Amino acid sequence: MLMIHRRFLSWLGLTAGALMLAPASANVTLNLKEADISTLIATVSEVTGRNFIVDPRVRGKVTVISSQPMTEEGVYETFLATLQVQGFAVLKTGEAYKIVPETNARQDGGTLAARSGVAPDEIVTHVYSLQNVSAAQLVPILRPLVPQWGHLAAYAPSNMLIIADRAGNVSRLDAIIRRMDQAGDREIQTVRLEYAAASEVVRILTGLNQGGQQEGASLPATLIADERSNSILIGGDKSERQKFLDIIRTLDIELKGDGATQVIYLRHASAENLAPILEGYAEQVSEAEAATAKGGGEGGGARRAGTNPAVRVLADPDTNAMIVTAPPKIMRQVRDVIAQLDIQRAQVLVEAIIAEVSSDQSSQLGVDWAVFNNDRVAAAGILDSSTLQGLQGAAASGNVDPTAALGLLGQGLNVAIGRAGSSTTFGLLVKALQGDGDTNILSTPTLVTLDNQEASFSAGQEVPFLTGSFSNTGVGAGVGGAVNPFQTIERRDVGLTLGVTPQINEGDAIKLVLDLEVSSLASGSAGGANLITNKRTLTNTVAVENGQILVIGGLIDDSVTDTQRRVPLLGSIPLLGNLFKFRSVEKVKRNLMVFIRPSILRNQAQGDYYTRLKYDSMREAQLESSATSIPLVGGRSAVMLPFDEYGAIKPPPSANDRGDARTKARGTGDPQPIPTPVPLRPVPPTPAPTPSP
């Protein structure tokens, strides 16, 4: 108890010595020497009326010497400065103030964005929204100005800067940031040319800019040519822009003379197809300018195309180049038209599916008979046409040998009953035939062509068709000469023919003009004079989306043919009438559908994708066929290389003069290195089997 009393008296003495109140004001003179920091905190709390929460780590001795009285705010600012010297900070938390070490100040809090009315040594946190400079670029510049315990970070998505430090330092950084966050004079300016070509002027200025650039100089200006409007876009500082503007005005002048000649190499379009279009366009522009110059007088519109000698457009097919002679202004317009027409057209992969499934069932049953008597009667009931033809052939030859009866036999079951040699000769021939045929045809032709380019694909055979014959009995070699009978034969294509013209519309819609023909020989037809062809033809124009499968035509046919031939009256007798009847029934059912699927190939990756699908399917078919060795000679069939290995084989680039000149004229880059060719690796042969003894 005595020790506590002594400590209280000591604190009371220090407080009395530290505070000297003036009688007429609330000013305080603060003097402490080697006093405990807790004493200073208690004194300031009593003077300012603030409540403090002291961290246990806040310890030490302080010395404060003042020569004149201070207000309450002055005492508080002196208190904050003293704590800063000791490495402590004051953080406001509600109605109280926390005194913590500076290393914990940025985590424990601080006043947010309140610079007015805050003591310079108070901890604050401020967020800056930058408008012209990048927050991330300011961090390394401002980092040395922030103490180690302070916080400085950038938030890139909203371009904000966050600073946690003492209010005095934050105010200093605020002034620096405001001066740096200023809009520069780098702007974009558009210059429209009247006589010179924008691309040529940019090429000259770019070379000049690269040659005159020095290390440590300001950012160079950016130059971009807009060939469509014949304008130049200049981006950079005002001084840099003005320098190039002066050069552009010097270059953009009208040239003396009637015209100039330029050679323009085409990348994708055909020079022969483009030359008439450009010449007509150039003549129209020349006539329009002449009419404008004469105020619409009689001389402007009366000039015919091709009469202006100053405008000529020629095509060089060997180099696929255009030779244009025209005044500078017309030359620039012609180059603009070429730039818009000479574009790479997309390709279209057209896949067609022709599926046909048919079933053919037939049956025949009938009786042919004949009775002959030299004295009394001769009658016959011949109902089958093949039997009648056989009888006619036997009668024409006059052959009554029994072998002549073989001509009466037809396909199927033939049963003959009869008697010959007596006074009455009769014969009965029963014929029965049943047929069943199924057909399943699947054709998938594939064709790749350019946009708006007609292409066709054909696969089939040339089949001979008999179109005429000549025969004559002649007059004998001794009288007039030899007789040479002959036949005329015409060969016609039988198979599949696909013609297509694609047109890519806006988006991925494709207009297809189709011409499809599928023909085949009918089963059972033989001989040049009796050939029967099945023919399917489709001509259509459809609109299909990219990758869509669309049915473009089809046929479902189901027909039944029932043919009866009978002897009048006798054929109508029940049961017995079947002996005087011949019946033939044929049922044919056919399902035919045609599908189409176009796919747009705009780049090499899409082309490689579809090519790999077809290549791999063909290679798998070859691998299956080469699984077994070739009979008699041994070995295996050849198989294509894998797609990746075959695609790695690149032809070496051409190094002729013409190619180099075209490359330089078109502004292409350096030639690519020649890849190492991949050697072909044939499938190892399989040894022939050893014959067994």
What does this structure look like?
It is a single chain. This protein has 693 residues and is an alpha+beta fold. It is 27% helix and 36% strand. It is built from 15 helices and 28 strands. The strands form 8 sheets. Strands 18, 19, 20, 21, 22, 27 and 28 form a 7-stranded antiparallel beta sheet that branches. It is elongated, with a radius of gyration of 53 Å. Residues 1-25, 296-306, 655-661 and 663-693 have low confidence and may be disordered.
Question: What's the overall geometry?
Answer: elongated
Structural category: alpha+beta
What share of the residues lie within helices? 25-40%
Please work out how many helical segments DSSP would assign.
Answer: 15
Radius of gyration (CA) equals 53 Å
What characterizes the major β-sheet? 7 strands, antiparallel
Total strands: the figure is 28
Ends apart, CA distance between termini:
128 Å
Query: Which whole number gives the mean pLDDT?
Result: 75
Please mark out the parts with pLDDT under 50 across 5 or more consecutive residues, or reply none: 1-25, 296-306, 655-661, 663-693
**In percent, how much strand structure appears in the residues?**
35-45%
